[in-house]
Amino acid sequence: MNARKTPLDRIPARAGVFPLLAAIVFPALGFAAGTGSAHAVTAATVISRPLLARLTRSTGTPPNGAASTLGFEPAPSQNAATAALMADRIVVHKAAHMLYLYHGNEVIGAYHVEFGLDPRGAKEREDDFRTPEGRYFLEGRNPHSAYFLSIEVSYPNRRDEARAERHHWEPGGDIMIHGTPNDPRYPAAYYETQNWTNGCIALSDSDMVDVWMKTRNGIPIDIDP
């Protein structure tokens, strides 16, 4: 992923991890058994004892509830029906440091995120430390990455490739949505408040579980300035 050369650390996961696991991960085991869902089986499988311990040791709450005050989207609905919905698109607002999951016109998840070390403007070339802007798609998943789960974003698209070709640049790639590093090296507070990746979109580990479980490959992700 484009963040694999970044400093490593762990962002504290949200409080209330046990309710999250009870509501999302464990029901997926039963769902997977009945449906054969590869994503559900994989996601449930990767929450092994070491990863569960990592999640439950973490404390602190990123400002996920701030969505309703940022002037972009409403806070997600908090009801059982919404909790069971799968997202059909993702919207990211870089200025607000927020990622939203949508099912139709309904926001079913809102999460604080961090971006590339240089967040100003769209990604243009390899090693510019920027996060892309525009429409992309989810196109792959890695439960064994250097970070806590990762979902690949389809950067570069044709427009990105054409721009890079005009300037004789390499467009770069390996843009992911991912959790925190598996081998932390820096204080957690830094990663809660600063952009720290090489261009990827980073969430806390518990938020990454939620996004992993509520999305599927092929859905669009719109990344706005």
Describe the protein's topology.
Elements: H1 17-35, H2 38-46, H3 49-57, H4 80-83, E1 89-93, E2 98-103, E3 106-112, E4 134-142, E5 150-153, H5 158-166, E6 176-178, H6 188-193, E7 201-202, H7 205-214, E8 220-224
Parallel strand pairs: 1-8, 6-7
Antiparallel strand pairs: 1-2, 2-3, 4-5, 4-8, 5-6
Helix pairs in contact: 1-2, 1-7
Short description:
The chain has helices spanning 17-35, 38-46, 49-57, 80-83, 158-166, 188-193, 205-214; strands spanning 89-93, 98-103, 106-112, 134-142, 150-153, 176-178, 201-202, 220-224. The chain has 225 residues and is an alpha+beta fold. The model is unreliable at 2-43 and 56-71 (pLDDT under 50).
Question: How would you describe the shape?
Answer: globular
Give the structural class.
Answer: alpha+beta
Strand tally, please?
A: 8
Classify the helix fraction into a percent range.
25-40%
CATH architecture label name: Beta Barrel
Query: In the CATH hierarchy, what is the superfamily?
Result: L,D-transpeptidase catalytic domain-like
Mean pLDDT: 76
Span of the ends, CA to CA = 21 Å
User: How are the strands of the biggest sheet laid out side by side?
Assistant: 3-2-1-8-4-5-6-7
Order of helices and strands: HHHHEEEEEHEHEHE
Say what the CATH topology is: L,D-transpeptidase catalytic domain-like
